[in-house]
Amino acid sequence: MAEDTLAPPKAPPAAPDRTRVRGGWRGEAGRLLEAAALVGLVVTQPLLDVLGRSPDFFLFHRATRTDVLLLVALIAIAPTVPFALLGALGLIAPRPARAALHTLVVGLLLAALAVQVGRHVTPLRGVPLLLAAVAAGAAAAAAHRRWRAIARVLRVAAVGPLVFVGLFVFASPASAVVLPRGHGGAAGVAGAGAHPPVVMIVLDELPLVSLLGPDHRIDAARYPHFAELAAGSTWYRNATGVSGWTPYALPAMLTGRYPAEPIAPHYSRYPDNLFTALGGLYDIKAEESITRLCPPSRCEQPTSPEQGLGVLVRESGKLLRQVTAPVDSRIDPEDSYREQTRAEAGLDAAEPVPNDPKFRWDTLDDNQPARFTTFLAGLRPADRPTLHFLHLLMPHSPWVHLPSGARYVAPEDLHSDGTGWVDLARARHLAQLGYTDRLIGETLRTLRATGLYDQALVVVTADHGVSFRKDWQGRGLDAINHAPDQVAWVPMFLKEPGQRTGRVDDRNWQHVDLLPTIADETHIRVPWRMDGRPASQAPRDNADKRFYDTPGQPLTFPGGVPSPPAPAAPDPLVGTTVGATPSEGTATVANLAAFRDVDPARGELPALVWGTVPASVPDGTRLAVAVNGTVGAVVPVVPPDSAGRRFAALLPDDRLFAAGANRLDLYRVGTDGSLRRLTLS
């Protein structure tokens, strides 16, 4: 009998190679640290750097400490999460694939970093910068793959996001929002005499010269309500702000002190100010915009504009796109400070429709800032003295209003400086100033209707101006040095209780004089030292002006009432009717479709026309823009940029438009004044 054949015993299953697993996890952890270091340089550092220097961003949106800390946590942690998930999934892939994927990630992050560095240290922009950044990222990734020392350095640098968060929370100007100090500001001491109600409006980005006519008086034809205000108040015509930046300018106005430190415009950093000085005796109704100088113990905080973590994340996302883009941003960060409209805020009508039929308040109120509506609603006599304060971002850019109040749409990439562009920017500014004049008129009407006008101390001024001088447009140091008459000088009107006759005072007024003057008029003794002096004292002997681009570093320049810029002669074609003309050439109008169905009752008109012309059209060629057969503007073709050979025209007269379909025509103006109609697309 044959022996049974036995199968060899099966080997027991192999134990898992824990060393390999641990090594895989350690490797992925190291790669994650490298990615975290690069994400910190590409995302966390630039975002927290800009936000840390912009406490006004958080103050404008009334962010709480929790909102800010959650935003910072998201900025520091969220961008690294996708790389952590990618690393976890990569554990199931072969080791060479994981290494190749990590090299790709490092290369992309280094290329993104190269875009930001290249934008600061090279003149490259757009596609050339992207190509250079990709090449730099590829070279750096190859070096990272070859030399392990680079990986070690990156892993140590993974502490960077924590360092950036620490600097933001403890050392940046925005730290005042996160770690506010006590806000027990000193209260003023009531003296003998009346304590009248105070109505104070601080406008924003309004040069005095924009209001002036050739006779150095308010141009009553263009700005009748500012002229009305001047006719019943004391106009300090030689008044200057102390800084071109609101977070420095407004605290100086409300504390009586020149800017000394680059700190947040927050009650914890400026505990002694107008609101605390009057708060012991006065009720405070304050509508601040990009400051928060009135402490919660003295002021109810408004519900507008939009608040909460959602808006902070959304606006930070926009900022990240600007920071990481291979092109320069043409958007002023302050342009994001947009007031909610009354419709957005869900407010009911606070005021009846004015009798003036030209002021279509009933149809344009959707464009009225909710903050202004709330301010108007509070202008009522009260048993206790009351301070009514409004900081209104008008006529500050973005410029979107016609003098009638109608809104128009404008692209974000329009320049504000350079040939042709600066003239358009000033025209848009003046149009919005016309709308601001209507808001001043509505304020005066409300004050008179409620009986508050005669009782109150009324102050209307602006924190700073802005330059529209070619090559020196804006409010930066270059504009201050080359156009101080447009940046520093601002309107300053003060109507005493019972005052009915206007007068002009050309003393050397500086905005640190504002709080001392208000305290003097309200018979309140301010218990801290101020740099300013009340208007009841003798004027300064020195005519020089002090201005601060950087706190603690005053600039000086000669004083004296500035002369308005010479007005541009109106083009004789504007207002004329165009008949039949020959056609010659083409043009593209970006918003041509908006003319097909115009509804003025909605309060929005296609009043800004922009587009391009063929490259064959020479720079400076004049174009006449007509609506329904009437020329509304004549503008030049500007030198080409990345968007082509462009033109843009503002049509400030809304009488050009009719309900329904409107005809837009564009004409090339010859040197002899002849017109050739361009075919539009």
TrEMBL record:
Protein name (record): Sulfatase-like hydrolase/transferase
Chain ranges passing through the membrane: 68-92, 99-118, 124-141, 153-171
Region feature (Disordered): 1-22, 328-358
Keyword ATP-binding: no
UniProt keywords, alphabetically: Membrane, Transmembrane, Transmembrane helix
Residue stretches making up the Sulfatase N-terminal domain: 223-521
Annotated source species: Micromonospora halotolerans
Keyword set includes Transmembrane helix: yes
Basic and acidic residues: compositionally biased ranges: 329-342
